[in-house]
Amino acid sequence: MPRRIEGLFLAGAAGRLEALLEEPDDRTLLGTALVCHPHPLHGGTMHNKVVYRIARGLRKAGRAVLRFNYRGVNLSQGEYAEEIGETEDARVALGELQRRYAGLPVLAAGFSFGSRVALRLAAQEQSIQHVIAAGFPTRIAERDFIYQVRVPKYFVQSTNDQFGPPTDFLPFYESLPEPKRLDWIEASDHFFQGALDNFETVVERIPEQVLSSTS
């Protein structure tokens, strides 16, 4: 049976939101994942190559994956709303996953700005059981909300991330409450250039770590 791919529109507070839902290839559905894209004012969309790799890795791990465009991006209506509105957009997408796959565990993931959105949502929504934050941008100072995230946090960071370099990222990571995990990827920049295959493999294995930690 070919995998299911569905383009759809969600009813957001600022208008319709463009989204893409994908189910795994020929395997049991183990859970769901919401994937958030990078900054909308800097070209971020749900088709960003890192976002695509996150989605594919999680789909290989048995998750139904929902990507979406924030308000004002491509076919999504509205305009940029300082991360708060984008978090509300993510909440709408989360609700769609819960409606379609009631009872299955939910994982939130995001890249760059999207990692902040995923973490902010996880601080507010108890239904999210795990968070993957890829390319977390430590150069954005405001991040007190992350200390309210009590579920397991999986950070995947490039060794040459210009927006979250090791010298900035490590003190931040060490200050966070458990449970948490960090994987460094040897890559040339924030976008995991030259290491996307390895990045995807790491993301694919995270759900296995989730299952083993709860068994």
Description:
- It contains five helices and eight strands, in the order βββαβαβαββαβα.
- The model has no long low-confidence stretch (mean pLDDT 95).
- Strands 1-2-4-3-5-6-7-8 form an eight-stranded mixed sheet, with helices on both faces.
- The longest helix is centred in the C-terminal third of the chain and has 19 residues, at 196-214.
- α1 crosses α5 and α2 crosses α3.
- It has one domain (5-214): Rossmann fold (3-Layer(aba) Sandwich), CATH 3.40.50.1820.
- With 215 residues, it is α/β, with parallel strands linked by helices.
Q: How do the strands and helices of this protein lay out in sequence?
A:
Elements lengths: L4 E8 L2 E8 L8 E6 L12 H12 L2 E6 L15 H17 L5 E6 L1 H12 L3 E7 L18 E6 L7 H10 L4 E6 L10 H19 L1
Parallel strand pairs: 3-4, 3-5, 5-6, 6-7, 7-8
Antiparallel strand pairs: 1-2, 2-4
Helix pairs in contact: 1-5, 2-3
Number of domains: 1
Give the name of the CATH superfamily.
Alpha/Beta hydrolase fold, catalytic domain
Described by the principal axes of the CA atoms, the overall outline is: globular
Helix share bin: 25-40%
Q: Please state the structural category.
A: alpha/beta
H/E series: EEEHEHEHEEHEH
Poorly predicted runs of 5 or more residues: none
CATH C-level category: Alpha Beta
**Mean pLDDT score, rounded?**
95
Strand order of the largest sheet: 1-2-4-3-5-6-7-8
Q: Summarize the biggest pleated sheet.
A: 8 strands, mixed
Note the total helix count: 5
Strand content: 15-25%
Number of strands: 8
**In whole angstroms, how far apart are the ends?**
30 Å
- Could you say what the CATH topology is called? Rossmann fold
Output the radius of gyration: 16 Å
